[in-house]
Amino acid sequence: MRRAWLVALALWAAAASADPPPPEPDGYHAGPFNAPVPATLAGAQVVDAARALALAEAGAVFFDVHPRASRPEGLPEGTIWRDKVHMTIPHALWLDYGGYPELRAAEEAGFAQAMARAGGPDMDHPMVFFCLPDCWLSWNAAKRAVSLGYTGVHWFPGGTVEWEAAGGPLEHAEAP
How many CA atoms lie within 13 A of 169 on its CB side? Predict the structure, then answer.
């Protein structure tokens, strides 16, 4: 039942975005993050779920850039708040800040270090960036990896929704 719901959601998203996709911006996208995304990303390969599944089997490194839920403002003192459960592609590295258009110096350095650790000295090692459908955060993060000189960058705009609809498993993500 859940898979049927996900397929229906993916089909609805495709139909809802029947308008032509927006063009790539010159820099990072700073507008609403949950909005139609371009069909392309200069310097990166755009992949669908079938290709993402193949890349996972081939040893690509996956980066989930879905933002971490923030503690709601105005909670009464003493209220216990727990992070929402975040499901992700197995073994993905969760860089919850990596897709924002502007990063603080420490975040920029952390992003570069995560890329270096994940790919080692091989700038062509396959890396896949994802979030949810119509999420600019994964586009921004993949663009940032390209700007750092990585050539094995893959952008998976369908993210976890398309992955699961294609039969890929998900696992609980550990908070960064």
Answer: 7
Which among 89, 95, 93, 90 is positioned nearest to 67, based on CA atoms? Answer: 95
pLDDT by residue (tens digit) across 58-105?
A: 999 999 999 876 666 777 787 775 667 789 999 999 998 889 999 999
pTM for the structure as a whole = 0.84
Q: Phi and psi for 124 in degrees, rounded to 5? A: -100, 0
111: left (phi over 0), alpha (psi -120 to 50) or beta: alpha
The pair of three-digit structure tokens given for residue 2, joined into one six-digit string: 């859940």
Whole-angstrom distance, CA of residue 138 vs CA of residue 131:
6
Provide φ and ψ at 172, rounded to 5°. -65, 130
Q: Do the Cβ atoms of 24 and 41 come closer than 8 Å?
A: yes
Let me know: does 156 contact 129? Beta carbons within 8 Å.
Answer: yes
Q: Which residues pair with 101 in a beta bridge?
A: none
Please provide the DSSP assignment of 57-114 as one string: HTT-EEEE-PPPPPPPTTPPTT----PPP-EESTT-EE-TTTTSSS--HHHHHHHHHH
127: its two tokens: 């890396």
Parallel/antiparallel/unpaired status of strands 45-46 and 171-172: unpaired
The answer to whether the CB of 127 falls within 8 A of the CB of 145 is: yes
